[in-house]
Every structure is written in structure tokens, then in C-alpha cells.
Amino acid sequence: MNHPKRILVILAASLLGLGAVGVAFSDDDDDDDRHGKRGERGGWVTSGADVAPVTNATYGQECGSCHLAYQPGLLPADAWARVMDPAALGNHYGDDASLTDDLSQEIGAYLIANAADQAEQTRARAFAVASGAKGSRQGAVLPRITETRYFVRQHDEIPARLVTGNPEVGSFSQCNTCHRGAADGVYNEHQVSIPGHGRWED
Amino acid sequence: MTSPLAIVLVTTGALTLSTPLLAADAAAGKAGWTKEYPASDDSAARSCATCHGRDLTQSGRQANTGKTIEPLAPSVNPKRLTDQAKIEKWLLRNCRWTMGRECTTTEKADFVAYIKTQ
């Protein structure tokens, strides 16, 4: 009489246990990344950075004093080379970002060695396809992360009023304003919170 | 016989060269701080205050990226004016961006003198 009951208890406990494990595993789930495979990014075993965090202190300091130090995995090597060209740094998206030769060489080498086309992360590799549909702008102006095909596709459903029309955001270039983990290379949808709007559900 | 004369000449030369630094004028730096220059693109006229503000004890805001710029006044931010390379880097970049040219030695000395008083 007692026997089937005990089996039921064991079964129930096992199911509960499985459930807990499932919750633990899905906690850091990046299933919104339609193009990525969790395992390749380290998934739930590691912190789940979508692109490798910045490791070069000079880059973090020199470039991060004006804007988020965009991870090198957000552009391919040839794009970084164009950005870091000494003449181009003199007119850096409308700012003068001139560096001494030593610094621009060190930073350029770091960015190129860790560029999207060198990256292990699936999401970073997606940025290796540099130019979007706006091909006519290539060559004349500097490459932009926000114009890569992957970026455009990932953000095409977000209304302009939440970003460019949102005084608290202003521009798609301000990754960390909505992607709260951007400084650590975490860009998954679960860490998105748009100022004045809140979470973004695809 | 010639060496004392050479020393005198070199000393005089050094004094002459360093005159702009010795004569750094905080008042001129203050006046230059808010002087506006037309931008080469279609953006608004620029001055130092565009990003740093008029009150150097307050934080500023990078006009393009919106990033906060810590106060320049050494009275509230003692790290300011302590790193020669950093001073040179930003004077070069910011004079070019604001005025469309590099600052003269005198202008730079005046700006530094003004910031020091804040």
C-alpha cells in the first residue's frame, strides 16, 4: 500500500529537481539570438558575453573617455583599420580624436587582432559582414557598427521614437543606454531596458 | 673668453622663449573660453563651454556622444592639470574641434592659467 505512494513521492521530488535544474539553466538563456548557438558562446557555463569584453587598457582609456569602448568584435578588421587611420582620427565621426603614433598603433593592432572576423563568439562573427544596404556610403565615410547588416536586422523593429527620438537615448550608437551589460560585452535581449520605456520584448 | 658671453646669450634666449608661458593670462583664457567659432559642418557654433560648460566646477557633457566630462576645475577635481601628455592631447584635439585650428602656445598657456584659477 505504501509502496506506490513512495514511488510517487520520489517521482515528484525528481520532477521538482529537474524543474529547478531547468530554471537554473534557462536563467542565462540567450534564445533571442536567432543566429547563435549557445555552446559556441560558452552559454550558461560562463558569463555569456556575446562579444569578448575589452581587454586592452589603453584602448579602454583612450577611446572610453568619450564613448563606450566598443568591443573589437563589433567590426571586422578592415573597418577598424579605416577607423584607426591617423588622418581619419582627426575627423572621427565629427570629433577630433587624434592620437600619438604610438597609441594609435597599439590600439589599432589590438582592435584588428580581435576584430569580428577573428572572434569566436557567434554574435561577434555576425558583425564581420560589415556594410549594410547603405553601400554607397562606404569609402566616403567611416564604417559604423550601426550600419552593419547584422545590427540593422537586430534593431529594425525598434521604433525611432524610443531611440533617436528619445532624449534619454539619442542615438543607436549609445549601446549601453539600453543594453545594460554592453560594457561587459553582453548584448542579449534580456538585459535590454530602454529609458522611458522599459524592457523590450521581440 | 667666449663662454661667459655664450651663457648670457643662451640665458637671454631662454627667457625670451619662455615669455609667453610666464605671461600666461588667466583673464584672456577666461575670455577665450566662451568665444564661439562657426563649425565647418552644419552644427551650431562652438566654444570650450559647448562641452565643458561655463562653470568649471560642474561636470560637462560631450556634445556628440553625451558622455559626462568630469569637472575641469582643480579645486573640485585635483587630478586635473597633473598629466602633461593628457593636457597636450586634449588641447590639440579640442582647439582643432572648437576653433578649426591648433591653439598657439600663448592661447594654450592662457587656457591652462584660467583653469588653474578655478
Quick structural gist:
The complex is a heterodimer of chains A (202) and B (118). Chain A has helices at 2-26, 38-41, 57-64, 77-83, 86-90, 101-113, 122-126, 149-155, 175-178; strands at residues 193-194, 198-199. Chain A is mainly α.
Walkthrough of the structure:
- The complex is a heterodimer of chains A (202) and B (118).
- Chain A has 202 residues and is mostly helical.
- Helices cover 39% and strands 2% of the residues of chain A.
- Chain A contains nine helices and two strands, in the order H-H-H-H-H-H-H-H-H-E-E.
- In chain A, a hairpin with a 3-residue loop joins strand 1 (193-194) and strand 2.
- The longest helix of chain A has 25 residues, at 2-26.
- Residues 19-46 and 132-139 of chain A have low confidence and may be disordered.
- Chain B is mostly helical and 118 residues long.
- Chain B has a two-stranded antiparallel ribbon.
- In chain B, a hairpin with a 6-residue loop joins strand 1 and strand 2 (68-69).
- In chain B, helix 3 (26-33) crosses helix 6.
- In chain B, 16% of the residues are buried.
- Residues 11-20 of chain B have low confidence and may be disordered.
- The A-B interface holds A 65-67, 90, 93-100, 170, 173-174 and B 41, 43, 62, 64-67, 89, 92-94, 96-97.
The main sheet of chain B comes to:
2 strands, antiparallel
Strand content of chain B: under 5%
Gyration radius of chain A, in Å: 21 Å
Largest sheet of chain A: 2 strands, antiparallel
Number of strands of chain A: 2
Helix content of chain A: 25-40%
Query: Biggest interface between protein chains, with counts per chain?
Result: A-B, 15 and 13 residues
The string of secondary-structure elements of chain B, in order, is HHHHEEHH
Order of helices and strands of chain A: HHHHHHHHHEE
Low-confidence stretches of chain A: 19-46, 132-139
How many whole angstroms does the radius of gyration of chain B measure? Answer: 17 Å
Structure classification of chain A: mainly alpha
Mean pLDDT of chain B: 87
Counting H and I runs of at least 4 residues, what is the number of helices of chain A?
9
**Category from helices, strands and their pairing of chain B:** mainly alpha
Q: Strands across the major sheet of chain B, in which order?
A: 1-2
Q: What is the averaged pLDDT score of chain A?
A: 79
Question: Residue ranges of chain B: pLDDT <50 for 5 or more in a row?
Answer: 11-20
In DSSP terms, counting alpha (H) and pi (I) runs of 4 or more, how many helices of chain B? 6
